[in-house]
Write a structure and sequence with these properties.
Low-confidence stretches: none
Strand content: 5-15%
Number of strands: 6
CATH superfamily of the domain at 73-256: NAD(P)-binding Rossmann-like Domain
Mean pLDDT: 95
Number of helices: 10
Strand order of the largest sheet: 3-4-5-6
Shape: globular
CATH architecture of the domain at 73-256: 3-Layer(aba) Sandwich
Structural class: alpha/beta
Helix content: 40-55%
Radius of gyration: 18 Å
Order of helices and strands: HEHEHEHEHHEHHHEH
Length: 263
């Protein structure tokens, strides 16, 4: 999804790509450079406050930061709960904080969340407030995000993605003080390496049923997500900030309508 967004929005700009996996990072950069894009790279661990601060500083050092697109994440088929919480929960919050300090006036950001955030178990108002506002570096100290008790990767993922929605909403205020906007996109089941791994996991049968029950009846593509991100980052969305755009082909609608039962 990140590559699709970079390809769509990259022409005429310098694209700073970041990834934890240097092999993946350099392969993506080589693909974009071969297509004529101006690309720079930086290896980063988004769960590290120092690494994210350095990434934001590096971006600002190259000129005005017009667009920020955060696509890093781990799925339940890829990692245990503690890693998911570190990357998908704290990592997103760190990016929102650090890039909220450097994004240019008129700029915009998008966080790639997940439809799982719309299907997460309900939270109390106090839990929502804590997840939305506690400093990013302290998020994993919250009882609700304690990996010693929250050990199920699927539940950790859903909590992290719900928290992404809450963090984006809260972050829209300081971003707005800089004249910038921030939103999230919640993809459904997308045909990426991560999506295919999930389809091959023990949850794959339910996910395939979800696709079949959805109004669109198909998997999403990275280009579907890139189109949504382009809208939110562009001038047509100049009055849109602090919200989540669900891009799932109607999968959540199928669940909520009763067309497909969770049990």
């Amino acid at each position: 999804m990140g590559l699709a967004v970079a390809r769509r929005l990259g022409p005429g700009a310098t694209v700073l790509l970041a990834d934890f996996n240097e092999e993946t990072l350099h392969a993506a950069a080589a693909t974009l450079v071969a297509e004529g894009h101006d690309v720079e790279t930086r290896a980063v661990d988004v769960s590290s406050p120092d690494a994210v601060a350095a990434l934001a500083g590096a971006a600002a050092g190259r000129g005005d930061v017009h667009h920020v697109v955060h696509t890093a994440g781990l799925s339940p088929a890829q990692a245990p709960a503690d890693a998911i919480l570190a990357v998908d929960l704290r990592g997103v919050a760190l990016v929102l904080e650090e890039f909220g300090r450097v994004v240019a006036p008129g700029g915009a950001g998008v966080v790639i969340a997940s439809m799982a955030g719309h299907m997460a178990p309900p939270l109390t108002p106090e839990e929502e407030q804590q997840l939305a506002t506690i400093p990013a570096a302290d998020l994993l100290t919250l009882p609700i995000a304690d990996s010693d008790t929250l050990t199920d990767p699927g539940l950790a993922y859903a909590l992290a993605k719900r928290a992404n929605h809450l963090r984006v909403r809260a972050a829209s205020v300081p971003w707005g003080e800089r004249g910038a906007r921030i939103n999230s996109v919640s993809p459904g089941i997308i045909s990426t390496a991560m999506g295919r791994a999930e389809l091959a996991s023990p949850q794959g049968q339910f996910m395939r049923a979800l696709v079949t029950a959805s109004p669109s009846g198909r998997l999403g593509t990275p280009d579907d997500i890139a189109a949504a991100a382009a809208f939110l980052l562009g001038t047509d969305a100049s009055f849109v900030t602090g919200t989540d755009l669900l891009v799932d082909g109607g999968a959540v609608a199928a669940l909520r309508s009763g067309r497909l039962q969770l049990g």
